[in-house]
Amino acid sequence: YLTCLYLTCLYLTCLYLTCLYLTCLYLTCLYLTCLYLTCLYLTCLYLTCLYLTCLYLTCLYLTCLYLTCLYLACLYLTCLYLTCLYLTCLYLTCLCLTCLYLTCLYLTCLYLTCLYLTCLYLACLYLTCLYLTCLYLTLRLVQRFCCTRK
Length: 150
Hints:
The chain crosses the membrane at residues 49-73, 85-107, 114-139. The chain is mainly α. 99% of the residues lie in helices and 0% in strands.
């Protein structure tokens, strides 16, 4: 009976230790699996956050670069437009002043030419009148002289 009891106790003890070992093994495997999955989840979460942060910073950088280039292009085009506007205004002002100068010069020359021709005409008229008067007086004198001599 004691042997049987001993063997039963030994069997139950082995069974209990086996169950305890398998339970510990199962819980250890479960713990390690949970730990692995948690680490895997946290690693994926970290890599996803890192990827999204890099993507956000890249988009921010490209947006800033685009806006800077757009600003510089607008500034360049505005400066180019204002320079062209200034040069066009300067050209038109010079053209107007040149036309005004040439018109004044033309009118002055025209006035002086007209004045010269008028003076020349009056001088010729005066000399013609003087000549005709002298001729008339000379003829009268000759006629008188001839009449008195006869």
